[in-house]
Specification:
This protein is an alpha/beta fold. The protein is built from ten helices and eight strands. It has an eight-stranded parallel β-sheet. The longest helix has 18 residues.
Length: 264
C-alpha cells in the first residue's frame, strides 16, 4: 500500500540541487504522493508549478499568519483563484502563530478568519499552522470552521488539545517529533487518536525524525514517522499505511478526483 506525505516544502532552496533525486528516494521507499504546501503567495504559486511538473506532487495554497500585516485583498483573491486548479487540494497552511508573533494577534486572527471563509465558499479543506495559540485556534475553528474539513498540521500538544481538535472533526497530522524518544505527550496522542483521523507528514526540510535530527528532512523520511506510529499503536505498518491512505483521500477529496492511484 502506498504512503503519502501530506505536508512538504520541496519548493524551497534546500532542495534546488537534488529535487529529482529527493522524489526518487521517496518513491523507492513507498511514498507515492506528497502535498507541497503554500504559506504565502509566492510559495503557493511555486507549489502549483511543482504539482504541474511532477505527477507525484499535489499542492495547497494559503498565507501563514506571519504575513498578516502585509497581505492585501488582491493576494487573497489570487489564493482563491488558485483553488480551482485540479491539483490544489486544500487551503493552507493558515492559522495562528503566537510563538514567532511576527504580526499582531488581531491581524493574524483576521487573516485566518478570512481564509476560512474562502475555503468554505470554495468547498475546500484547510490545513492549520498553530504555535502557542491552542485556545484561540480551537475557539476560531468553533466560531468559523464548523463543517470545513480540517487538518492540524505537525500537531504539537497534549492529548487534551488533540481531543479538542478531534471534537471539531479535525484530522491530526503527526510529523518527525513523534519519533523522538522523549516526546511522551506526542506518543500518547499517536496511541489515542482514532485511526481514521490520523495523517503523517514531514514538513520537510524541517522536523527531521530520529535518528536523523540535525540533517535536512525529506519526503522519504515520512516512512520513519509511520513506522513509529505503527509501533506505538501495536499495529502492522501495512495496516497503518492503508488507513493513512484512506484518510488522505477522505480529507482531500480532490486527490481522488485528480489521480487514479487513489482508487486503490
Amino acid at each position: 500500500m502506498p504512503l503519502i506525505d501530506t505536508h512538504a516544502h520541496i519548493h524551497l532552496e534546500a532542495f534546488d540541487a537534488d529535487r529529482p533525486a529527493v522524489l526518487e528516494r521517496a518513491a523507492a521507499l513507498g511514498v507515492a504522493r506528497l502535498i507541497n504546501i503554500g504559506y504565502d503567495l509566492p510559495s503557493s504559486e511555486a507549489s502549483v508549478a511543482l504539482a504541474d511538473a511532477h505527477p507525484m506532487v499535489f499542492a495547497t495554497v494559503g498565507i501563514q499568519p506571519h504575513y498578516a500585516l502585509t497581505t492585501i485583498p488582491a493576494q487573497l483573491d489570487r489564493i482563491a483563484a488558485l483553488l480551482a486548479h485540479p491539483r490544489v487540494v486544500a487551503l493552507g497552511e493558515i492559522g495562528l502563530d503566537y510563538y514567532h508573533n511576527r504580526a499582531p494577534q488581531a491581524a493574524q486572527q483576521e487573516l485566518f478568519r478570512n481564509q476560512i471563509d474562502i475555503a468554505r465558499q470554495h468547498g475546500m479543506p484547510i490545513v492549520i499552522h498553530a504555535r502557542d495559540a491552542q485556545a484561540d485556534t480551537v475557539r476560531m475553528l468553533v466560531e468559523a470552521a464548523v463543517g470545513v474539513p480540517t487538518v492540524m498540521h505537525a500537531f504539537s500538544g497534549d492529548w487534551q488539545y488533540a481531543a479538542d481538535c478531534l471534537a471539531l472533526g479535525a484530522y491530526i497530522s503527526l510529523a518527525g517529533p513523534v519519533t523522538f524518544p522523549r516526546a511522551v505527550e506526542l506518543h500518547e496522542v499517536a496511541q489515542r487518536v482514532p485511526l481514521e483521523r490520523l495523517l503523517v507528514e514531514t514538513d520537510c526540510p524541517y522536523l527531521t525524525p530520529h535518528p536523523f535530527r540535525g540533517k535536512r528532512n525529506e519526503p522519504a523520511r515520512v516512512r520513519l514517522v509511520a513506522e513509529r506510529i505503527a509501533a506505538l499503536r501495536g499495529v502492522s505498518y501495512e495496516d497503518l499505511v492503508a488507513a493513512l491512505w484512506a484518510n488522505a483521500q477522505r480529507v482531500f477529496p480532490k486527490l481522488a478526483a485528480a489521480d487514479p492511484l487513489f482508487d486503490v
